Amino acid sequence: MMINNKNIKKLFIVASIIILIFLLIPIRYVLKDGGTIVYQSFLYKITNYHRLDGMYESGYVVGIQIDFLGFTIYKNIKKDDTIINHKYTINTSKTKNCNGQPELYYKMLDKDIYTYCLDSIIIDNGNEQIELKDYLEKNSNALEEIINSLTKVEVYKDGGTIVYKDMMTSNFTKNGLTVVKCHRMLNDNSSNKDIYFNKDVYFGPSDTEFIADFCTTEKR
């Protein structure tokens, strides 16, 4: 059976349309950098930036970038002009053979502070280097001061536990840092079954992930 010219032309048009759709329709994916969204096809890529950047007061870099055939043809990236200047840096030493269990580091009135896979947490203000626990003794606002200098990356639906990280863009830490600020709803074991919140705080390396042993201590 012979295919006439009209059929060949139709097949060519259909094939061209299919190829064009394949080349133009993008795939959408979200980066784990704070919410950047990328639309990418074989011909072009559109990046809608919403990237965490602890160097700036707003905490984010936002903007649009368009690439065509691998070349950037448009870029409009906006950064907060207010750069945060920290009065000290935090230097952490990661445990080489971590057993994966949090260790009690410091006790406060309404919360305990734990370390996770860290041997030390040093505060360096340029003139002296002291352990975090000693800095907490001297400065009642030290804990909130540190947390406010980090970037919030995740909130858990357990009552409001928040994970903060240093994104290594502002020289606040030398080796990175993760802080888990617990606000986990727990049931008291007493007969009245009161509900209260664990408010402990955990310090860990930059690659720390939330684990089941965090925020579980039942205490008043």
Describe this structure in words.
The structure is a single chain. By secondary structure, this protein is of the alpha+beta class. It folds into 2 domains: 5-79, no CATH class; 89-204, no CATH class. The protein is built from 3 helices and 16 strands. It has helices at residues 5-24, 132-138, 142-148, and strands at residues 27-30, 37-40, 44-52, 60-68, 71-79, 89-94, 103-107, 112-115, 118-124, 129-131, 151-155, 162-165, 178-181, 184-187, 195-198, 201-204. The strands form 4 sheets. It has a 6-stranded mixed beta sheet, with no helix packed on it. Strands 1-2-3-4-5 form a 5-stranded antiparallel beta sheet, with no helix packed on it. The longest helix is centred in the N-terminal third of the chain and has 20 residues, at 5-24. It is elongated and about 90 Å long.
From N to C, what is the helix and strand string?
A: HEEEEEEEEEEHHEEEEEE
Class based on secondary structure composition and strand pairing: alpha+beta
**What value does the Rg take, in angstroms?**
26 Å
Mean pLDDT across every amino acid position: 82
Strands of the widest sheet, in order across it, are 7-8-16-13-12-11
End-to-end distance: 87 Å
The biggest beta sheet is recorded as:
6 strands, mixed
Number of strands: 16
Shape: elongated
Number of domains: 2
Number of helices: 3
Strand content: 35-45%
